[in-house]
């Protein structure tokens, strides 16, 4: 899907890691949420409440989910899933454009 129609966009940005990760929240008519964001190169760790799907539109990184021991390469056109009440780490090597779906 290259565009989202009939949605509400929250005006205020989500800003993390001193501005190295920014996103905007998009709310769909059925109440589901996605964030559209940019990650600058760097190392990041996030905690999850609900399950998430991270779709990488552009960029490159390695990802480690929860207590996994191995890092998995992910690049533009790929995605990965994170369980709810969990965490994941990312080592972003090339600026990344992403969509995160919740629930």
UniProtKB/TrEMBL annotation:
Protein name per UniProt: Pyrimidine/purine nucleoside phosphorylase
InterPro entries named in the record: Ppnp, RmlC-like_jellyroll, RmlC_Cupin_sf
Job of this protein: Catalyzes the phosphorolysis of diverse nucleosides, yielding D-ribose 1-phosphate and the respective free bases. Can use uridine, adenosine, guanosine, cytidine, thymidine, inosine and xanthosine as substrates. Also catalyzes the reverse reactions.
HAMAP family: Nucleos_phosphorylase_PpnP
Keywords assigned: Glycosyltransferase, Transferase
GO molecular function terms attached to this record: purine-nucleoside phosphorylase activity; pyrimidine-nucleoside phosphorylase activity
Presence of keyword Cell division: no
Assigned protein family: Belongs to the nucleoside phosphorylase PpnP family.
One GO location term (cellular component): cytosol
